[in-house]
Amino acid sequence: MKKVLLIHGFTGDGKGVWFPWMKRELEARGYEVFAPNLPNSCHPDLGEWVNALEPYFRQLDENDIIVAHSLGGKASLHTILRVRKKIGQLILVAPAIGKRANEEWENMQRTFPDDDIGALRRFWECHLPIEEISNFTKVALIVSDNDEIIPLSNFNDVPKDWKKEIWIGNGHFCINKIPCLLRKIMEK
């Protein structure tokens, strides 16, 4: 049975946004689906998230898929490099990668004053040898032309062998259903 691991982002959980819908849809089609709640998502720590994800990654193989949203994308990249094993495909949905200027962080703090933007920034800025990821998996990068959290410019320097798709009008993909993403997962 093919497995799919769904990884949420900052302030999220495995039952938020489109995860319950996606889990139901995939399970109805015969997939085994994991959608764990990562620790302290409102005050994320990269080490804690990687430790929590590692047991799931160890269950996956070259036939399986990881779908990671936002900060979960950054966590998935670090976890792949820790476990160093082949996994079928990684689908990054609006991942928290790329450089952000200080003024962008300051603006984010003003926009989301109740969120722990300091913890988010520390997690986001942890060094990642992104060019090594393709040694372990194929990467599909899905971004939106109108993401209010992570602009398209964050994805200018991704490795050339990552398949980048710009979807129209999806914001930061914080909606209840994403049928196009379901079809993308089932392509594999």
What's the architecture, going by CATH? 3-Layer(aba) Sandwich
Strand order of the largest sheet: 2-1-3-4-5-6
- Helix percent band: 25-40%
The name CATH uses for the topology is Rossmann fold
Number of domains: 1
Question: Which sheet architecture does the biggest sheet show?
Answer: 6 strands, parallel
CATH superfamily: Alpha/Beta hydrolase fold, catalytic domain
Coarse structural class:
alpha/beta
Question: How are the elements arranged and paired?
Answer:
Elements: E1 3-7, H1 19-28, E2 32-34, H2 46-59, E3 65-69, H3 71-83, E4 89-93, H4 102-111, H5 117-124, E5 138-144, E6 163-167, H6 179-187
Parallel strand pairs: 1-2, 1-3, 3-4, 4-5, 5-6
Q: Can you walk through the features of this model?
A:
There is one protein chain. With 188 residues, this protein is α/β, with parallel strands linked by helices. The chain has helices spanning 19-28, 46-59, 71-83, 102-111, 117-124, 179-187; strands spanning 3-7, 32-34, 65-69, 89-93, 138-144, 163-167. It has a single domain, classed as 3-Layer(aba) Sandwich (Rossmann fold), CATH 3.40.50. Helices cover 34% and strands 16% of the residues. The longest helix is centred in the first third of the chain and has 14 residues, at 46-59. The mean pLDDT is 96.
Task: Supply database-style keywords.
Rossmann fold, 188 residues, alpha/beta, globular
Task: Describe this structure in a few short sentences.
The chain has helices at 19-28, 46-59, 71-83, 102-111, 117-124, 179-187, and strands at residues 3-7, 32-34, 65-69, 89-93, 138-144, 163-167.
